[in-house]
Predict the structure.
Amino acid sequence: MSDIVSAAVIRESFASIVREMRRAVARSSYSSIIHEGYDFSCVLVDAAGRLVAQSGEDHPFHIIPVVWSVRGLIERGIEIDEDTLYLHNDPYTGGTHLNDVAVVYPLFHAETLLFHIVIRAHWADIGGMTPGSLSGAAREILQEGLRLDLVPVPKSGRSPVMDLILDNVRVSREADADFQAVIGTCRVAERRLRAVIKRYGPVEVIDAVDAMIAAAERRMRAAIAELPDGTYRYTAYLDGNDEAHFPLTVEVALTVAGDTAEADFAGTSAQVPAPLNAGPAIAPTSVLIVLKSFLDPAGVINSGTFAPIHVRVPEGTILSAVWPAPCGGLNEVRFAADAAVMGALSVAVPERMAGDVRGTSNHTYIGGVGSCDGQSFIFYEYPSGGGGGFAGHDGNPAVRAFNEGENVSIQSSEMVERIYPLRVLRSELRPGSGGPGRHRGGLGLRREIRVEAPQARLSILSDRNLVPPYGVNGGRSGAPNSFHVVSAGRVIAPSDFPGKVSDFPLERGDVLVMESSGGGGYGPAAERTETEIRRDLAEGYVDEADLAVYGARYRNGELVREPVRDEKAGVRPVWLDDEVLASHLCRPGNRLATSLGLRRGQMVELAPPAGPPLRFWIDGFEASANTLGLAEHWRDRLPEGPFVLRAMPTGTPAYVRGAT
Amino acid sequence: MTSAPDLIVGVDIGGTFTDLTIHDPSTGKVTAVKAPSDGTWPEQGVLAAIAKAGVDLGRCRFVVHGTTVATNAMLERSGPRVAMITTEGFRDVVELGRTTRLVPGTLYDPYFRRTPPFVRRSDRHVVAERMGPDGMSETPPDPVEIERVLDAVAESGAEAVAVCFLNSYADASHEHSVAVRARRRFDCVTASAEVLNEVREFERFSTCTVNAYLMPLMSRYVGRLVEHLRERGLAGPFYTMASNGGLMSEPLVRALPVRTVLSGPAAGISAAAYLMEALGVDGFVTCDMGGTSTDVALVADGAWPVKRESILDGILLKVPQLDIHTIGAGGGSIAHRDSGGSLVVGPQSAGADPGPACYGQGGEAPTVTDANVVLGRLGDGQRLGDSLEIDGEAARTAVTRLGATLGLDAGSMAEGIVCVAVARMAQAVHEISIGRGYDPRDFVLLPYGGAGSLHACAIAEELGIRRIVVPPDPGAFSAYGGLCSALFRDRMATRLRLLGDAAAAALAAEAAEMRAGLAEEFSAGGVDASDLVHRHELDARYLGQAHEITVPVGAEMDVERIRARFEEIFERHYGRIDREKPIEIVNLRVIAEVPARPPVLVPLARTGEVADAGSAPPCRPARIDGATHRVAVHSRNSLAAGTSLAGPRIIEEMTATTWVAPGWTVTVGRFGELDLDRNSKTPDRQGED
């Protein structure tokens, strides 16, 4: 058999093995985040730590961290033992958050290490201060559970170390059963891999791996080569938390040169004592996912795919945090990095881009003790948001986006009512939440859960409650994520800072209202057709009150178009000579402020005709006309105008000096 | 003297042709005719075929009908406007789904478009009602509000109504009362628990709305067809093939048309099960390789593989369906070099038009079929079906061109293409076998479809399978399926309870009720219900798991036997059992079947003769593992039962070609099947221990 044919046949075998692994894990797990949420990944890595195969249905954000876990074994010179597997979840050495535990299962052939079978699965709890382990209130990683940095465990899965781990997590029987299911799946994969090695011979299999990786690299290089050369910049924001009276920034400069791409995240915020940090494997993951998705979504992903991509991340930032920064919300940071890279890519190829998405996991936990059986329970959901609009089509309603993986983010309401002392009152779309545009962003969802137990506790780790998903090419933002509690008819905010809730007490009859974000729009809303606007109204996707941004309103039952009032064209950026002015702040001219009704602390968007808008918070006003005063920082970083200035809806907090 | 009606007529309406098969049990003769299908009026194709066959419907015992009308209506969205009445707060369940894409292979696609549900949002009406999860009514529906909603539905012009209430699986009385009111005003009304009496609202609502969407269309179509058949003298019953391989009566098809979606491949399994039962084989793998895709299924212990959920074009359907795994590789699959320089086969297909290069209809891309031509397994000038003749030169040109881009000569390229296609099929068989806890080496391979028997030896060798049965007329094998199917109906209910004596007693009583109900249904449909055969199944799991496994059980519901059977199946699936966990029953299902199946297979009349005796069969050069050999080519019709030949051989017939690889011996069986056996000294290619 020629090399090219055996490479193709072995590639198909590997694909089949990872598919079989995926099915085995999903079917034999006890915890719902695995068997209903599909929050796990199954991959094959070679002895050199290169990703060889993944199923194509795995969570994209696990891919690079899985490789880092194995790389740790190699780089630290750990003597890999044939009868041992290694547990890894440490964010600082390439993990995601502590709940995601990778099992690295080495496979030897004739005393030579050939492969690692790796399964990374989300544990429902890994210890720490709150049920489920993820809490918006964590200030250091020790509050988020156990750190496992390549901990050796016998392949039987039984050892004092394993007992120690299981003794320190909640719902430990479930965790143990799932762990055994993962090991069982590794054994299944081992048998099949051994069959492939026996059939083709170890040398041929290794040659085939080399060929597969080289082919994936050529394919990615060809895709990158189609982009225009240049350096493209964008700054994306996270809400932050109440420790930080400013939005956290992720800044990227994406340089395309021939068939390679380099992303430099210099300028990204320093790490924070809040769960809004990520380890060093996350920024490369973002760059890979965005480039792969927008340039070449088909085709296999292996280490060759990321060979032409180089990523620089300054240590000690929220994108490459060091001990003891908590990393529970790594996905929040990762989504901001995705938004930054998408924004930069939008500058290069605006017509290929889509509005931004949810930007957070929306981890929502209700934990407590049931009234009838006295058993403790943890309810966990992470509601999806609307997808971004793109050329030719509106965004999808409340569906997993391209960068999220096919995880089931809300449970069956009937199962919730059956299993937990909870009632689901509402599980609906969230009208009006889609970012307006020529192609509207998809709608988010609204879910209302009533507590039936005497008491329960609510924890939420969410972001983009303040900074909404952006639109592109003139499109508007989607509505941000939002959480509140209705208790005895009163609406209560479960935390001072939106989206970061820790152990908020709930009582019987309290209703948690979860609202996920809409996707960003694509193209100017004023260009949306009347047919589409009428349909949106008829179907209840948009309310009549939302029509103004489309430059439309109803008069005597007739839809009439009129100018859009909440934005101003021809705004000129100027650089202020103010050394303390932070880069996220701005000072509009007085006349501009009056005509748009701007207030101090409000968020505004400076939108070029192509690409994403830049966001600023109003620090004060200048005695000038149509100008927007910005920090010197922006002098070389602004895209080409002309610019429109857009007032964002009220409710954004004051990220400004001295504001309260 | 008029004889009792005895003919059995099978109709299979495909996209291009409508196939009619007539089985005469008195002579054992099966006659098949084809007529062009009519996309707009599918019944016209049936009538044309009947006219062409000249069959007297007055002599007909019953008609079995397989149709893609429902599947096509779903794919083409050609159904009417439908309305949904649902619990307040749950209007968007069918639009939200599980918040997933439900379309494989779209994970990194930022331009993915989610399939919209069949009921638009403005047609989803809500009412203030609530059934508790324990089956206790909390807020009953208000009749005044219901009538007001029905007025709105009538005004909207919707032709069908789906009533979908939360927790109706626990108690359907709210849903039922609204359905009763709706049925006074609309012909097509369906309620979610009637379609799927099972917990999980999205799955139930989605299936119910699809059912509503299909009702007006299927009801009209079946009505017209039956009317025409009655006019032409049909007195016996009219059955429709369901997606689980059973037959549905006419009233049932009108009520549950969703059960006919994806029934196409079921006929093949039905025919396969029938043939294999006659041969005394109870474990086999079917491999139906057509032009664009290959369907594989595993039948173990004689039990048909059933899955309870499938996804069609992004729409979730939870109806019992034969568990058939489809791979995007068939005879027409195109081989190409991707932008990274790798060899990829499929999923793009040359289809029927232009088809593979060797069809000579303008196709230039090399396909799996072209590779077989280059290898000599299909002959230059060989006729395929009625109208096509293989153009060997065109195939060679196409394969050579691809080979040049990958540095391979035509022969090596062709071997490579076949190799990759075979690997994909073998892996699919492996996944479905191991995934269910079986070893494929213990199974017989049954290839059919136009391209199945050409690749069967290679697939079997990859899997370590040692016996292959090629049915008579493999390219048209599925058409026999309807004739071999049985009439069966099922009932199910979600009954969440822990396995124990009390649960078993309750289940036994409920099963008895269900059996009585099923007998009534059969009697009402004019079927003699005196000798029904029953099967009982429980969907069960360890407490805390989400996925259930289906456990066949006895009517007596013996706790220890249920536990033992559960553990046996669980261990086969997952490689472990967990004695500490209680077993939770989720669903109870009873299936009643009318046992009589007509004798369709007839032994070959001639035995022992060798038709080719006296003259050596013609030979043609064929490539085997890089070398060219002269291989004898036989016409299948000329081979008598009992004939035994050693590979390599090529056996040609109108609808398919069988490649008997070296190391295999083919024997013609008594029903005309080709029985291929792997010579015992040939080592397994498969490496697994």
